[in-house]
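Batch job 17 of 40 flagged for manual review because the log was empty.
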Amino acid sequence: MTATTDPLARVRHPEKVNKPDNPVTRKPAWIRVKAPVSREYQDTLKLMRGLKLHTVCEEAACPNIGECWKHHHATFMILGATCTRACAFCNVATGRPGAVDENEPGHVAEAVAELGLWHVVVTSVDRDDLPDGGANQFAETIRQIRKTSPSTTIEVLTPDFMKKPGAVKIVVDAGPDVFNHNLETVPRLYPTIRPGARYFTSLALLAKAKELSPGLFTKSGIMVGLGETPDEIGQVMDDLRAADVDFLTIGQYLQPTPKHTAVDRFPTPEEFEAYAAQARAKGFHMVASTPLTRSSYHAGDDFVRLRAARAAKAV
């Protein structure tokens, strides 16, 4: 595969983190995945290019892209491929975004129908330049998917909509099945890892979504391997439960390029299992905690289990 057809071959933005290079640490055996080479991967890539769509699978250099795209599972990234923030862990390009594409929601709906998705995840870059932070584009995308694929369940993974009053209500009122927003890391590390965001702003966003629609499933995720402590992870779990979040994902941070924050350590699969047990004990309806866990990894199957778990607890 040539560099022009493989989006994962690009180093997108070496200038985004203003610090010396951090050599990328060799990954342990449990992290390594096969390169994406399947025919289904190529078919999915062709569809995305034809409809001029972006996916977080590509832009964030997700290690699971080969597996997911083989099954035609893609996470759509709306509002362009340029983010207004520069998080030290993220591979998405940073800069001044272009105009919002009014045809994008319809193109996402077309792709969902073409791929035959029964559960779809829609995320976006941060768009601090927009008055609504991109909330109306999320809402219109939900509406367009409902028109063409009425039985498909819809999960949104939104930015924090910081200083965008009413944005979360716009998204929630459009009726997604799952409202997801990732905390990403523990509050102590926000100044270096997620400097454009605020921990308690993100917590408040999740609490507001549940307040606006008590029956809505809410979800959040964190990365480990950035220098956090087990006690800090436990406190994040408590904070998320206080916000009535239903589903927690925990995955390994992987350094995208030498310009990004270095990996502090690689917790073992057994440590991830211990975090999962701790989270279940704290009352989460659903927990996904493995080194390769990402917000949208196996999201459809997880949503089925999540819905069943809540129903069981309600009996």
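Reviewer: the log was empty due to a logging misconfiguration, but the result itself is present. The chain has one domain: 33-314. Unflagging and moving on to job 18.
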